[in-house]
Write a sequence for this structure.
């Protein structure tokens, strides 16, 4: 006969010295962990609730400007630096970490309308309604803290006066060129020339915004006040494609990870994502704002973008999501004119009418600061469990809930009512007209009026 | 896997059940031999016992009021006390610091030091206690057959249900889904959850009172013993009997972690093989005159604890326990700090009582939409039209009889045919629904054990 019984020595399962790690033994037999699914579900529920508890997205306001902020630019080679321009002609460089002004660039007589930084982070281009384009020297990253002097002669590189007031500027990725929008034309400038090297003109309406493609340095998209969006190629003399929508597009942002896609922030409260190869049909319509969307910026990951709106809120959308993932608002924040995603995709900066820049977390409940590995693992686990059960009604309700300011909630209701009424009316009209005479038009196409090749 | 499983291998003509405790003790190591002991306490018995989920601590209670907690690693008593009142059952709460004892009149919660913390008067004179450790629910069945569920973290009484079948002291927790099963004097077993007044399942298990219930750790097998001197193994997926075994008047039965089944009759314990319950694996006979009150396998050890009329015994059953514990589930070598952390962790993961259901895999799934797939209105209409058109086209056979071919009669007959087609269409539809309902009933009530209750439900 052979007999063996379970025999454990305590030394194997306990630590020898008090500063050793505790010994751990694992057994994944499901019979030992009954109710595992219920436990996981409860954890998902708790994680969703904790997410709400810890949702404190607002980090701080950056005060300093004396007039509404009209434009912002982030420095692609320096994470902490953000430039902002205001309606009184003031340009400031902010250090996000300390939330203080590092230096100022006085010079513009009227409102600053556009700001852009070259990809190497050396040169800041600004343009304004005083018909000037100015080039500034950006202090180096090492000297950014020490530089307190507001000596303008040291910083000015060049100042070019041109025929019309400017609305926007954008610098080419990996190149020496930058484009300005002003009057009815888009001008392409070189750093070293006092006159544009090239210009595009299409119709008589003012061009409002211009944005270079991050993948193809010679392609740029513009929008103008005749409600059109156009794509230009610098290598050809004429525009590639232009199409007109029912309402004006205020701003355009290219997706940095999928450079054929861009998203347009429209006056009719929606954002439209387009594929530049398959125009004119939107890939996705992002609804939720209740007033005109003023500015849009993509996260460097290309998975989400942030929008600022005239309804005094900032929203974050998934690149393919029809509704916003997040809404940020404070009582004191007025109409938002410009928003930027930080270069590490973890912060959002908004500039608004109330002369303040505001710094927000991109993930509202994210924990800032150094996180120990154990804590990080816990966060990851909670995230995974939440993701697994996010479709269940109880979890979904908690995750989706957002507190809205009353005016925005009311305006949203009103918009929904109006949309429903419109749809009902159209349905009735369709029912009473000859079959086939009123074909259904998808919302992705219906806002596009015409295409001008 | 760190620790080796226990085993008992016969050679040649040897039989496993011929080995007695003495011969096993000669073969095993000294540390394991310490697990074989007899505590002779002839005055305050019969004894009942309970282990913590890690199997490290044993709680024993004598009928006449002797309560003690023993640390089984050191074999030293932590607390030994006399409450001078009848104690019918004891159970550990979530860790070894707290336990509940069902006294003559009320149930009390004590801490490890023996201090009385709570007196639970609402439970009444409790006969049997069970603790649901994931839900922190203390459940009990009392003299008048009432079932109580009390949340021990908040003190809230979650459920108070009448079993309606009189006094019963058979209550057992199914570890797989935390459903409670109560055995009654009519031979029925009822299963309960804390959120519904009606039982989940009622099955007729024995011709005579049920004396004991045990659940396999995987939750699919249930063993019941009855006064009809039978031991039955049930498949809980079909609610059907798998095996019926003669077992004498089994007073207490228990499944081990590896699926062995221990039964006790009088002063005789037998352990059935986990592969085939008709084969005995080991037997053990206590001294004559001892009446065994409770048998309970110790978790994570090859040990069977026996509470009997004159004390407590512990015997070795090689291969009955799970050799490898999981530190995050139950750790026998837990330090004080780890125990505190575990307490916080399990409290954070405390489950709501709604999560107790017969099939726990349903949790986390979306409910199927209740809408039946009805044929669309247009489809029904189209079918109807087709039927009517077919009825119209029927050419009536020429009747030989005179006066039967009158145009008016032919027209009437045709009209009748059309009406018939229309009506039959509606009737068919209704009939279809009726048939479906009947079928469903038949499907749910296939098992013989459930059949006695079918007619009662239908009325």
């Amino acid at each position: 006969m052979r007999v063996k019984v379970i025999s454990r020595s305590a030394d194997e399962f306990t630590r020898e010295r008090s500063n050793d790690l505790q010994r751990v033994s694992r057994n994944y037999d499901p019979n030992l962990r009954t109710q595992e699914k219920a436990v996981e579900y409860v954890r998902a529920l708790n994680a969703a609730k904790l997410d709400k508890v810890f949702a404190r997205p607002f980090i701080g306001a950056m005060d300093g400007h004396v007039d509404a902020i009209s434009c912002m630019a982030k420095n692609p080679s320096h994470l902490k630096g953000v430039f902002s321009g205001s309606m009184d002609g003031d340009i400031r460089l902010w250090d996000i970490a300390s939330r203080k002004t590092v230096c100022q660039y006085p010079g513009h007589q009227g409102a600053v309308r556009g700001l852009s930084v070259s990809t190497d982070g050396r040169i800041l281009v600004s343009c304004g309604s005083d018909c000037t384009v100015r080039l500034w020297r950006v202090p180096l990253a090492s000297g950014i803290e020490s530089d307190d002097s507001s000596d303008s002669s040291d910083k000015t590189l060049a100042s070019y006066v041109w025929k019309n007031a400017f609305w926007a500027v954008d610098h080419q990725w990996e190149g020496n060129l930058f484009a300005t929008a002003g009057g009815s034309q888009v001008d392409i400038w070189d750093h070293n020339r006092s006159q544009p090297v090239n210009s595009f003109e299409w119709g008589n309406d003012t061009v409002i915004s211009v944005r270079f493609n991050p993948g193809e340095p010679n392609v740029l998209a513009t929008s103008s006040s005749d409600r059109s969006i156009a794509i230009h190629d610098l290598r050809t003399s004429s525009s590639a494609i232009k199409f007109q929508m029912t309402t004006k597009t205020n701003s355009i942002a290219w997706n940095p990870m999928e450079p054929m896609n861009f998203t347009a922030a429209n006056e009719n409260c929606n954002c439209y994502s387009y594929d530049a190869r398959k125009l004119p049909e939107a890939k996705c319509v992002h609804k939720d704002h209740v007033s005109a969307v003023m500015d849009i910026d993509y996260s460097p990951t290309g998975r989400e973008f942030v929008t600022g709106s005239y309804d005094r809120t900032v929203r974050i959308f998934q690149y393919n999501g029809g509704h916003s993932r997040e809404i940020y608002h404070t009582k004191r924040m007025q109409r938002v004119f410009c928003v930027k995603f930080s270069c590490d995709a973890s912060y959002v900066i908004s500039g608004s009418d109330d002369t303040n820049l505001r710094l927000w977390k991109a993930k509202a409940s994210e924990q800032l600061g150094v996180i120990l590995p154990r804590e990080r693992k816990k966060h990851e686990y909670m995230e995974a469990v939440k993701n697994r059960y996010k479709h269940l009604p109880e979890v979904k309700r908690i995750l989706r809930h957002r507190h809205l300011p009353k005016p925005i909630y009311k305006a949203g209701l009103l918009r929904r009512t109006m949309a429903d009424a419109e749809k009902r009316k159209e349905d009735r009209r369709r029912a009473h007209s000859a079959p086939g005479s009123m074909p259904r038009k998808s919302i992705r196409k219906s806002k596009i009026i015409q295409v001008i090749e | 896997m760190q620790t080796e499983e226990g085993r008992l291998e016969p050679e040649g003509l040897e039989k496993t059940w011929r080995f007695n405790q003495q011969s096993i003790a000669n073969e095993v190591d000294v540390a394991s031999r310490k697990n074989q002991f007899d505590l002779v306490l002839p005055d305050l018995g019969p004894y009942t016992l309970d282990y913590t989920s890690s199997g490290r601590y044993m709680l024993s209670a004598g009928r006449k009021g002797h309560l003690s907690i023993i640390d089984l690693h050191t074999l030293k008593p932590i607390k030994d006390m006399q409450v001078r009142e009848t104690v019918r059952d004891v159970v550990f709460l979530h860790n070894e610091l707290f336990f509940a004892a069902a006294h003559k009149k009320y149930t009390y919660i004590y801490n490890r030091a023996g201090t009385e913390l709570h007196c639970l008067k609402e439970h009444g004179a409790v006969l049997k206690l069970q603790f649901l450790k994931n839900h922190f629910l203390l459940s009990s069945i009392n003299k008048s057959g009432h079932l109580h569920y009390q949340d021990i973290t908040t003190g809230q009484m979650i459920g108070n249900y009448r079993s309606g079948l009189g006094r019963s002291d058979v209550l057992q927790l199914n570890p797989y889904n935390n459903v409670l099963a109560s055995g009654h004097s009519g031979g029925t077993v009822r299963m309960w959850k804390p959120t519904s007044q009606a039982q989940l399942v009622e099955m007729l298990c024995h011709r005579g009172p049920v004396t004991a219930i045990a659940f396999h750790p995987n939750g699919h097998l249930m063993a019941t013993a009855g006064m009809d001197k039978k031991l039955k193994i049930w498949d809980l997926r079909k609610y059907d009997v798998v095996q019926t075994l003669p077992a004498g008047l089994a007073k207490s039965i228990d499944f081990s972690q590896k699926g062995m089944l221990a039964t006790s009759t009088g002063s005789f314990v037998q352990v059935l093989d986990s592969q085939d319950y008709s084969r005995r694996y080991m037997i053990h006979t206590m001294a004559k005159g001892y009446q065994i009150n409770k048998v309970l396998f110790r978790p994570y050890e090859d040990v069977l604890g026996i509470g009997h009329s004159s004390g407590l015994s512990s015997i070795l059953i090689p291969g009955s326990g799970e050799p490898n514990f999981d530190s995050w589930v139950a750790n026998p070598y837990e330090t004080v700090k780890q125990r505190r952390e575990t307490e916080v962790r399990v409290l954070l993961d405390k489950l709501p009582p709604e999560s107790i259901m017969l099939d726990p895999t349903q949790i986390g799934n979306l409910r199927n939409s209740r809408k039946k797939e009805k044929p669309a209105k247009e489809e029904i209409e189209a079918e109807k039209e087709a039927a009517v058109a077919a009825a119209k086209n029927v050419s009536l056979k020429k009747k030989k009889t005179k006066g039967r071919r009158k145009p008016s009669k032919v027209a009437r007959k045709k009209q009748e045919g059309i009406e018939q087609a229309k009506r039959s269409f509606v009737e068919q539809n209704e009939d279809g629904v009726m048939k479906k309902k009947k079928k469903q009933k038949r499907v749910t009530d296939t098992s013989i054990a459930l059949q006695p209750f079918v007619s009662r439900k239908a009325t």
Notes: The CA atoms of residues 251 and 265 of chain B lie 6 Å apart.
